[in-house]
Amino acid sequence: MSWAARRRFIILFILGAVAVAFLAVVLISTVYKTPTCSDKTQNQGEAGVDCGGPCSYLCTPQVVPPTVLFTKAITNEQGRTDIVASIENKNLTAAAKGVPYNVLIYGPHQALLKTVTGRVDLPPGGKQTVYIPGVLFNNQTVVNSFLEIDPIAPKWFTLTFDPRIVPFVTNVNQTGSLTAPRITATLGNRTVVVQSNVQVVVVVRDARGEVIGASQTVVPSIAAQGDSGATFTWNSAFPGIPAAIEVTPIVGLP
Length: 254
Known about the structure:
The chain is 11% helix and 44% strand. It is mostly beta strands. Among the domains are: 66-158, Immunoglobulin-like (Sandwich), CATH 2.60.40.3230; 168-250, Immunoglobulin-like. The strands form four sheets. Strands 3, 4, 6 and 7 form a four-stranded antiparallel sheet that branches. Strand 8 and strand 9 form a beta hairpin. The chain is elongated.
């Protein structure tokens, strides 16, 4: 082979190698997809599909599903039915935001009167109260009600502490009359930031622990390192004697 032929061979070899490398890069970038936590594939050391390992969301078997402690339908003398429920997250180091739920409301003969949907945040190791006013009107008879959460619905993530700034509750008192009960409470703000539009729910129980009343209000403002009052009123008597009163500020996860 002459020197000129060898030079042409070397040049063609180099150009061919460059072309092959270029095509390889194009093919890899086109065909190969970097593993992510949303590619619906268990890869990159994940414990499940898009969960565990390097992913922020935990896998369902890694957590305890939320527990619905109670669901209660309360119909007042004006014929309006409200729903109050309590959900517990037993996971001390896991939380979930915007968890969807269904409330099924049944009448006589197990007739489904209505299904109500909503979402709730579940902070680590805590309870959340759900209050839904006016689910039914016209004095419809409610026999049973159930709040349900699909065990696979929550998208759990690791959270080792509760980051919420929740007002503390003091001075809970029942006043008013038998036919027009009234409950007051004081909400305190330990922070240096004003807290605005704080939703507050009250649950009233009798000596057996049965829920006999519930209501909600919104406190427009709690001054920094100050306090503000919350008042709940009813236009009719409770169907039992109040023995315990729980006042709970509802604060979502940031």
